[in-house]
């Protein structure tokens, strides 16, 4: 299997990284390491997560973020990486784009 992170998902990740780096120096790097570890775990666990709005949703182990992805054949496409602390209506709107 191969993981593809779409550009909009990378933008989500960078936004989160900047937020955590502003909270404490070095926390942004830890955020990136943790999130990419969660994304790498999809190689083992892709497709077992609950589906929301046509996407599988994997929750991050260390941060309040959800990884929304789709599985197509041997490819895993990460579509969005969203902060779970925002209003649910904003998450729905982000997923429908």
Widest sheet, order of strands: 1-5-4-3-2
Could you please say which CATH topology applies here?
A: YaeB-like fold
Helix tally? 4
Radius of gyration over C-alpha positions, nearest whole angstrom:
13 Å
Assess the beta-strand content as a share of residues: 25-35%
Can you tell me the residue ranges where pLDDT is under 50 for at least 5 consecutive residues? none
Query: What is the CATH level 1 assignment?
Result: Alpha Beta
Q: What's the CATH H-level superfamily name?
A: RelE-like
The largest sheet, given as strand count, sense and whether it forms a barrel, is: 5 strands, mixed
* Helix proportion: 40-55%
Distance between the termini: 26 Å
Summed over residues and divided by their number, the pLDDT gives a mean of 96
Order of helices and strands: EHHHEEEEH
The class by helix and strand makeup works out as alpha+beta
Q: Can you count the beta strands?
A: 5
Description:
The protein is an alpha+beta fold and 97 residues long. The chain has one domain (2-96): YaeB-like fold (2-Layer Sandwich), CATH 3.30.2310.20. Helices cover 45% and strands 29% of the residues. It is built from 4 helices and 5 strands, in the order βαααββββα. The protein has helices spanning 7-23, 27-40, 42-45, 88-96; strands at residues 2-5, 51-52, 55-59, 65-72, 75-83. A 5-stranded mixed beta sheet has the order 1-5-4-3-2, sandwiched between helices. Helix 1 runs antiparallel to helix 2 (27-40). The longest helix is centred in the first third of the chain and has 17 residues, at 7-23. It is globular. It starts with a strand and ends with a helix. The mean pLDDT is 96.
